[in-house]
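Quick one: sequence plus zinc ion SMILES, need structure tokens.
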Amino acid sequence: MHACAQEFLLFEIIDPETGRPLPVETGVKGELVYTAIDREASPLLRFRTGDHVEVLGTSCRCGRTGPKIRCFGRTDDMLIVRGVNVFPSAIKDVVARLEPRTTGAIKVVVDFPGHTTQQPLKVKVEHGPGVKPPELPALEAELERRLREALAFKAEVELVPPDTFEKPGVQKVQLIERRA
Ligand SMILES: [Zn+2]
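Reply:
Sure thing.
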């Protein structure tokens, strides 16, 4: 998204933990907050979107100076694994790169209260229909390595058969299975 309406929209990025505004600069990550400053006959709301975004740049060939941003998760879904922010949607992206050895479907098992854990994060991953039982341990190890390299956290991957989880349909698929 390229924000272009700066005269109508105050565009902020905040730290979701502290609520403090962060500088809107390339590389900054945080929660997107909008305030529509040109509205009439309604209260001025500083609206927390719940979207966790990264600022990709503040200059563009089109000449506009509004920030360009990419949304990569929901603040509500964010987990903190030994101090590292981890988004289930980002885990899903890494796992999906191994299709067809995985189906791309995952569930993060949250067996701790709140969002913070010091333990490895348990992730269930559907393996692809063509994967044979003797190949499963190596695939688990590869997924754990890729998640550590891409997202800097320790995962404990458990492979489950294809079609274990609900498929995307009208409802948004829940990527978290909460057990605490
Ligand atoms: Zn542009």
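The longest strand covers residues 46-57. The two ends are 36 Å apart (CA to CA).
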